[in-house]
Structure formats: structure tokens, C-alpha cells
Amino acid sequence: xxxxxxxxxxxxxxxxxxxxxxxxxxxxxxxxxxxxxxxxxxxxxxxxxxxxxxxxxxxxxxxxxxxxxxxxxxxxxxxxxxxxxxxxxxxxxxxxxxxxxxxxxxxxxxxxxxxxxxxxxxxxxxxxxxxxxxxxxxxxxxxxxxxxxxxxxxxxxxxxxxxxxxxxxxxxxxxxxxxxxxxxxxxxxxxxxxxxxxxxxxxxxxxxxxxxxxxxxxxxxxxxxxxxxxxxxxxxxxxxxxxxxxxxxxxxxxxxxxxxxxxxxxxxxxxxxxxxxxxxxxxxxxxxxxxxxxxxxxxxxxxxxxxxxxxxxxxxxxxxxxxxxxxxxxxxxxxxxxxxxxxxxxxxxxxxxxxxxxxxxxxxxxxxxxxxxxx
Length: 375
Prior knowledge:
Elements: E1 2-7, E2 10-15, E3 54-62, E4 99-100, E5 111-120, E6 128-136, E7 142-150, E8 157-160, E9 167-170, H1 172-179, H2 185-196, E10 201-209, E11 216-226, E12 235-241, E13 247-249, E14 265-267, E15 280-283, E16 290-295, E17 298-302, E18 306-311, E19 313-318, E20 321-327, E21 331-333, E22 345-351, E23 361-363, E24 366-371
Parallel strand pairs: 4-12
Antiparallel strand pairs: 1-2, 3-5, 5-10, 6-7, 6-11, 7-10, 8-9, 11-12, 13-15, 14-22, 15-22, 16-21, 16-24, 17-18, 17-23, 19-20, 19-22
């Protein structure tokens, strides 16, 4: 039914149940057309179970400066080796993907790594209850789970659509993801916009990669869960931990002290890196190391030097393997054992002074080398 109403001297028609538009409020000469007012239907389907969340993006970022507090996305001395106008955000910028090396000896600390993900939920973001990543060693063994916390959109970027065109700024965490080929510029901008429009939640968490972590590709599986609880499908990617080789020792000399001609004498080590009189070796890298030794002759240097008077026979013992004898200028390797990462091991060495050796001070050198493979 339509009622005709006179408003301000102008005759208009309005459908009952709709708001009446007063044309008297319009400027003179304005014509009222259709399109100023609509009524649309609304509906919803109630499902107590709902649908699971969806993880849309994920990326990992190493701390590029462990001496500075917090996660740094750029090294103390910035580089841009891949020439993309972004500070290099991993240790091998010329290789696609994210690569990192543990800190040798965990110095100044175990190297931190940030885990990020972005997710949405068909039932609404308020239904996302938790997010986490599961990390797996290169051999397939489980490493750890990292529980992630939601972050403010301002951490990843800035979006302002009150201007024309809208303003989008990409902040360091997403620039680093772009630099390491874990995201494109378009994906980063899309994530920022949807975050500000409350269409996606962004999460992050921090863990560490210790010095002893084996090199290789680490699998990361990202999950989100709602209050159902319904679990998302995992979103997966890989990052690489590189090989580091480093040997620590706690001794600068081997001093057999007073010895007698014809009598073997040992200097025994221990597993304490703070006792230089008791030789200790420690693998500061992340792969097993074979240890090699090379003794020079000990020559008589005092009180009267005499290079013809020498000691040239030795023994050595490491982790249950004994090499006997070892002659001066001969390279030998402990080929039955490998020095494991992180664990100090004692090195025992002996000397065989020959009979009729004249008294005096004898000096020489010992070379200790390490290799992940036998020469």
C-alpha cells in the first residue's frame, strides 16, 4: 500500500515501513532519484562446530646481531649482497630461502630465531584460540614446539586507507621475509591490509638454535586451532642450519716437567676447560671432528743448546683410542673416534726420552688439528 504525503509543498510517495526522505532538506533544484536507500536481506548459518582456521603465511628469521638486545633483522654492519634494496636478513643471502649458522660456542648466547605465521578463520578471528609451530631435525626427529602469541598489526606494517591512494608501509619483519624469499611484496602488502581490516591475525614466537644443532634442512609445520577445537592443516616450509667447524683447547703448552732418560711420562688431561695443565679439547662446532696430532722433536736448548740431542717419540690417547708410538714429524689421526659437539674430552700425551739423554731443558711443539672427515 502506498500513501501520498505532502512535505514542504512537494508531493512524494513513500512505501509504508520505510524511512520518509524529506526533500525540503535538499538544495533547491536537486532531483531525488532511486539509489539513496536500500533494504537488503540478512542471514547466518549457526554451526556449533564451525570450520577450522587456515594458516596463510609463515616465515622464520634469525637474529642478525646477538650482541644487541632483542631480535635484529639486520647485521651490525649492514650488507645487501643480493642487491634487492633490503638489508640482508640471513647468513647466505645469495642462496634462496633462509640459511643461518649457530653462534660458535653459543657466544655471546645461543642464536635466537623468530617464528611467524598469519592465519584467518571462516568463523571469525575471535575463534582462533592458539597458534604454534613444530620444528623437526634434519633426520626427522622432533626438535621442539614453539607456542606463538598474537602481535599488533603495527609490527609488520602500516596501512591508512583514509587517503587516496591508500598508504602501505612494510616494516622490518616482512622486509626480512621478502629478502629471504619467504614472501613477495604483493603478499606482504595483502597481509598488512587484511591485518588492519581484521581479516587475519599475525603471531610470532622466539626460540634458539644452539651451537650443537646438526646442520641440514629443518622442517617447520605451522598450526592454528580454534575453540572447537578444530585444527588447521599444517603450512610447511624449510630453513637451513649451516655447518660450523671450531675446535677449543684449554692449554697453551704441554709440560712434562722433570723426566728421566728411558722412563715414559704421561701428562693426563681432564674434561674441565679451565685447567690448562690438564689438556682438554672441546668441539665448538655442530659436526663431529676427527683429531690429528703432529709432534716436532724436542731439542736441547739449555744450558748449552745442542740440536743433536733430541726426544722424538711420543704417545697420545683420546676417548679410549691410544696411538703408540708417535714419532716426531709424523702426522697421526684418531681415526676410530670423533670429538662430539659441545662435550669436553681429555687429551693424554706421553713422552719417551731415550737412554743416555744428557740433562738440560728440551723444547718442541705439538700441532693439534681437527677435520670433519679423515684426510
